[in-house]
Amino acid sequence: VSVKEIVAGARLGRPRDVARMLTMIENEPQSAASVRRELVHGESQLSATIIGITGPPGVGKSTTTSALIGAYRQHGMRVAVLAVDPSSPFSGGALLGDRIRMQDHATDEGVYIRSMAARGHLGGLAAAVPAAMDALVGCGFDRVIVETVGVGQSEIDIASLADTVLVLMAPGMGDGIQAAKAGILEIGDIFAVNKADRDGADATVRELRAMIQLGMWSGWTPPVLKVSATTGVGIDEMLTAIDEHEAWLDTSGQRQVRRRARIRTEIAAYIHTSVAASLQGPAVDQVCDEVLAGELDAMAAASHILRRFLEAKGQP
Ligand SMILES: Nc1nc2c(ncn2[C@@H]2O[C@H](COP(=O)(O)OP(=O)(O)OP(=O)(O)O)[C@@H](O)[C@H]2O)c(=O)[nH]1
Ligand SMILES: [Mg+2]
């Protein structure tokens, strides 16, 4: 089957072709490039909203994702979900739980759900996720939701590739402070205190608002919402906040900034993995010894190794 046929099938929303398209993207940069070419040169360029959802374990990310899927489906939109686990080489465990929580939508042909885990392909998830995001937008999904597991640095990096980043908190977890430490506050475009059906939600909202006031925001001040993903309370307000942020992205020019950042992340991941692969071997050991002996500084050693890397690639 040709890339053209796969992309054409993905455009029609055929799950098997969407899956094939994403597998091509995951497997190698060349395939990712031909998918992108096919999408760009095919029909009109479509633009969708990419929503990143992050937050501490168990805060309700998957339940919120499921609620958003339901709401967008009511508006007749097609939705794709990427559930990303950067810390695990297997798409089992937590992601399996996610799938169960999203099961309501499993038979809906307007919904496509895919798990992505670190599997050691060239560039890894850092390259595959932004490419997959753009491909899902390109083949006509109206909303692409990216849920990460947990809030480690790689999860934050992945969530921040989205157009609109939703940070979830829950009452009484002392989340605000933790979040500030984890660097999660800086990436949030919208904050939501989930499980608002429980006590203490108002206090968490106040705490978050206070922290946001201390932050440096230019042009967009993140709203803090109160939601309950299981009952659906606050989900309409979440949709409105997402739409408002999307409108701001377009008027402020930030949409293009974020698109560029996605590509930059993808490129950086390839640079990192290809150069890192050349950081092995006796020649490199020798350079390290020279740095140890004070004959070479580390910066000069880096230039030296990079030069050799490019020469080996035939691009002096
Ligand atoms: N009371 C209450 N419980 C909720 C709410 N939203 C989610 N939960 C429950 O919280 C638990 C965890 O929900 P998930 O949606 O799996 O949370 P998650 O953030 O995706 O979890 P991980 O992916 O494992 O980090 C489940 O038992 C949900 O039913 C809510 O609004 N109120
Ligand atoms: Mg989850």
Question: What does this entry look like structurally?
Answer:
The protein is an alpha/beta fold. Helix content is 54%, strand content 12%. A seven-stranded parallel beta sheet has the order 3-2-4-1-5-6-7, sandwiched between helices. α9 links the parallel β6 and β7. The chain is globular. The model has no long low-confidence stretch (mean pLDDT 85). Guanosine-5'-triphosphate (GTP) binds next to α4 and α5.
Task: Give the SSE map.
Elements: H1 3-11, H2 15-27, H3 29-41, E1 49-54, H4 61-74, E2 79-85, H5 93-101, E3 111-117, H6 124-138, E4 143-148, H7 153-159, E5 164-169, H8 175-182, E6 190-193, H9 201-214, E7 224-226, H10 235-252, H11 254-277, H12 282-292, H13 298-312
Parallel strand pairs: 1-4, 1-5, 2-3, 2-4, 5-6, 6-7
The structure holds guanosine-5'-triphosphate (GTP) and magnesium ion (MG).
Magnesium ion binds at residues 61-62, 94, 98, 147.
Task: Fill in the keyword field for this structure.
316 residues, alpha/beta, seven-stranded parallel β-sheet, 13 helices, 7 strands, 54% helix, binds guanosine-5'-triphosphate, binds magnesium ion
